[in-house]
Structure to design on (539 residues):
């Protein structure tokens, strides 16, 4: 395959990675932005979403689309509720102290991971996509007879991968509208900016924290449900999303939602393109290098604000 | 109205208030005066539930404020204008008002009342709060507090850093609130301002209320200002 079609293929793969990463990292960013909690267990909520998606889809059986839709609706709800429970039972009790919440979420990480292992076993579990037709992609070339379109061999994607990108975009736009245009979003932003003042104006800050922690984990779970028909559900699958989400949130600027989206597209695309042309390991090296450069030259991230 | 009785409070293990009592009546301005670190701001934060009450009692009419969740204190009718304004800086003027109006019925009527009281805010509704001038920020902080339709208004150094015309405007608004039968508790350093609008003054030192005196009596006994404030 020529370089051009090959690059288009890599961009599409990167688009899928960026879409899932944007959802996952957005969850981490919202939690840090509003609660100032570094949630080390975020990757495990992602993993749990994937494993529950497999469990729900196989339990329902029948048509793959039915199982998938049920998984997409139920798994994030369960994960979000569980996370809200973690907030109430653990984080609230340690008063959201920055150091202690890191230790507490590390503990949560292992509890979730080992409970999943003991409950569902160590095997990787596939989930059938609801639809997965192959779509041949056209390429354009300037030839002797002018502009010509043709279908290079191997240049194709699947309808499901395009769905993942579209679904992530719709969810993120909906989330953005909810945060900027609704009463719930106003309450969240007020709490993010000054939790004491929010409380002084009648906002139940602790309840907001529980909802936000649940929402963050729920977003990670949605990303996982979307990706599980492409990858497989496995109890150790939370590490990479956690690392990449942290990278994205740091590059975008801690707590900055637009920064998170931009960084997710940057890192996701780079991951997809480098993985296709070289190796996935090189893609991770690139991402880590970018985060190191950002920390050195722009410690507040692309769109973060200085606290000084 | 609002009664504070033998308050003890502080920041974590650091106790700041040791024995503070005062009563703020409807239609009166009660001023808390004292040197830096005496516990004036701590008193207001404790009333709002932002600091834990170690001991003592805070009652608003017959309601014990210490027994209700902190976020419901404002819904009991206590509004707070903190030192340094503490606006939601990345929200617009309109959104800051919306936060104040969250639990208030007749939102549009009250919003209109507030914009009539502070007409300059009407032109700035879509502007981000941190782009306002100091005076406009103070207007917004007061409008946000008044949006809850309070019966008690807590003001922590509302004229700090403002130009004289803005100080006059804030003073007029405080007097209007008094006329509307609100109980106003004012923390203020400027003695001339206190003497011109307060009905009673509570002197605090090292977290203790030492003396409560009415303003007329204080005008005749300026040595008290020297004794408690060193001026």
């Amino acid at each position: 395959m020529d370089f051009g079609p090959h690059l288009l293929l890599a961009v599409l793969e990167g688009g899928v990675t960026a879409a899932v990463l944007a959802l996952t990292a957005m969850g981490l960013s919202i939690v840090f932005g509003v609660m100032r909690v570094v949630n080390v267990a975020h990757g495990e909520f992602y993993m749990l979403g994937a494993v529950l998606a497999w469990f729900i889809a196989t339990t329902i059986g029948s048509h793959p689309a039915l199982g998938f839709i049920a998984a997409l609706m139920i798994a994030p709800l369960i994960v979000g509720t569980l996370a809200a429970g973690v907030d109430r039972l653990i984080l609230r009790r340690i008063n959201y102290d920055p150091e202690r919440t890191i230790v507490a979420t590390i503990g949560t990480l292992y509890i979730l991971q080992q409970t999943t292992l003991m409950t569902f076993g160590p095997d990787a579990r596939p989930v059938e996509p609801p639809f997965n037709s192959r779509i041949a992609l056209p390429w354009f070339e300037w030839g002797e007879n002018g502009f010509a379109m043709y279908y290079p061999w191997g240049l194709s994607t699947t309808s499901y991968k395009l769905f993942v990108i579209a679904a992530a975009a719709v969810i993120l736009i909906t989330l953005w509208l909810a945060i900027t245009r609704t009463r719930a979003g106003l309450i969240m932003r007020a709490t993010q900016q000054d939790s004491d003042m929010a409380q002084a104006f009648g906002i139940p800050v602790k309840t907001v924290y529980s909802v936000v922690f649940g929402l963050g984990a729920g977003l990670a779970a949605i990303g996982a449900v979307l990706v599980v028909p492409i990858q497989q559900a496995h109890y150790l699958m939370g590490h990479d999303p956690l690392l990449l989400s942290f990278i994205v949130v740091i590059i975008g600027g801690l707590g900055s939602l637009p920064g998170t989206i931009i960084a997710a597209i940057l890192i996701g695309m780079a991951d997809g393109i480098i993985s296709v042309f070289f190796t996935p390991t090189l893609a991770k090296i690139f991402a880590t290098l970018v985060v190191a450069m950002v920390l050195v030259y722009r410690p507040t991230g692309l769109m973060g604000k200085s606290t000084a | 109205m609002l009664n504070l009785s033998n308050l003890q409070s502080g920041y974590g293990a650091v106790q700041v208030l040791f024995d503070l009592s005062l009563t703020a009546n409807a239609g009166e301005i009660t001023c808390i005066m004292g040197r830096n670190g005496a516990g004036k701001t701590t008193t207001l934060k404790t009333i709002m539930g932002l600091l834990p009450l170690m001991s003592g009692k805070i009652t608003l009419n017959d309601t014990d404020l210490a027994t209700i969740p902190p976020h419901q204190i404002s819904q009991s009718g206590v509004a707070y204008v903190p030192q340094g304004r503490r606006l939601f800086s990345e929200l617009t003027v309109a959104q800051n008002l919306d936060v104040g109006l969250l639990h208030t019925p007749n939102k549009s009527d009250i919003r209109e009342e507030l914009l009539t009281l502070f007409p300059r805010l009407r032109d700035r509704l879509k502007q981000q709060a941190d782009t306002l001038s100091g005076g406009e920020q103070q207007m917004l902080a007061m409008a946000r507090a008044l949006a809850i339709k309070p019966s008690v208004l807590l003001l922590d150094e509302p004229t700090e850093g403002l130009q004289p015309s803005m100080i006059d405007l804030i003073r007029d608004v405080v007097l209007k609130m008094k006329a509307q039968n609100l109980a106003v508790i004012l923390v203020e350093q400027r003695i001339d301002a206190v003497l011109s609008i307060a009905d009673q003054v509570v002197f605090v030192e090292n977290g203790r209320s030492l003396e409560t005196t009415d303003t007329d009596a204080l005008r005749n006994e300026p040595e008290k200002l020297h004794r408690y404030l060193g001026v």
Observations:
- Residues 162 and 278 of chain A are 23 Å apart (CA to CA).
